[in-house]
Amino acid sequence: MSKEHYYSIIKSPSITEKGTLIASTNTHVFDVARRATKPQIKAAIEGLFGVKVKAVNTLVRKGKLKVFKGRRALLSDSKKAYVTLVDGERLDVTTGL
Hints:
Number of domains: 1
CATH topology: Alpha-Beta Plaits
Helix content: 25-40%
Radius of gyration: 15 Å
Oligomer: single chain
Number of strands: 6
Distance between the termini: 17 Å
Shape: globular
């Protein structure tokens, strides 16, 4: 597949406190497309970063109703992928692609 297709699956790395804590266990967090499947996410990570993926776990965060200055807004659903790499593989998402 082309890199453009991989970039349409993997939106961005999720750099949060929890994400940096679990990075020590060789697990990384990515924001992914809502319709992306686990095999597609695995292929995209392996294609973009050149590492071997051991497991992919996904979750969908449901959209919330937020109120700001009296205006209501519904945040959209988002999907995250927790990607575990094979032992011995390293990935540094802070340097960019």
